[in-house]
Amino acid sequence: MLFLLLLLPMSGLVTEAFFGSHSRGCSWGLERYFNGVANRVLPGHGYCNLTLPSLAMCGMECFIDDRCLTFHYSEGERRCELNGATASRYPMALIERAGTDYFSPEQPSFAELLTNGREVPIRLTDCWYHTHASAASECRRTGQHLCLQWELDHASKEGYPATPPSWYADPDSQAVLTETGVTYHDLPLTAPSPGLCCSLPMTYRDPVITPQSYDLADRAGQVRGCSDLAAHPCTLAELKEAYDHGYRSLYWGYLATPNRDTRVDGCTHHKDDECYQGTIANTPRPATRKQVYCCPNRV
Ligand SMILES: *[C@@H]1O[C@H](CO)[C@@H](O)[C@H](O)[C@H]1NC(C)=O
């Protein structure tokens, strides 16, 4: 966990090494990706120093030795030190040493870290991918899709652990889950990244408001904005359900009913035909350009 946090600010330094017969799919065979942390070592757990001409050979030595959990490689000295411990076990022990890099061949199992068994159908792929398309196809292989933004927001609120920069639904950027929320970054130039796969359905999801505003008459645009979020403009009944789940929003936005606006505040100032079932304020006086309340599609 802490190890991952250490990795985050250094994602630019994540180094990749693979070896052996180059077959597709990294969960078997000798092809593995190694997380590298530049200029760091985990002292005190080495049990063997070898002189080897390449990082890949050092990785191979570690891979075939059952005692080896991680290794150090010094490019300058061509020194390969095999370690019997991981930085995830001793996160505070990873110290700076110029010229030597720490490599951890294992990928942590994020599924294990999920908080108290609450269902968050999201997983980080074991393999790291160079392209959005290959990450997407790995998600499809298990009946999932690359997570949409609102799914990541939800997962983050549910306590999903921090991740390195990862592929998600938007092909133009990468998502990083941190302790405090989700952030989005430009694509790295070379580093491979894991994919964040999500699976519908979740039992209940809060409405989401489209990032963009739409003209009142642009119903097609409003529907499209929601559909980009795997959702549709909310009906009053859905907003009532959301309210009953504790969702509140003071923003006046469009909804499924044309030419009205709504907010989810318990009808503090509205009544009669401007208050749906005592909970959802909605008026026939919408502004001409607003964002839309979208309710997640259920399958
Ligand atoms: C390997 O070499 C490094 C650098 O000389 C040293 O710090 C480390 O203790 C050695 N490890 C073992 C297991 O001898």
TrEMBL record:
Signal peptide start-end: 1-17
Keyword Signal in record: yes
InterPro entries, per database record: Pan_app (IPR003609)
Chain ranges of the Apple domain: 26-107
Keyword terms of this UniProt record: Signal
Domain of life: Eukaryota
Name of a matching Pfam family: PAN_1
Keyword hit for Amino-acid biosynthesis: no
Name of this chain's protein: Apple domain-containing protein
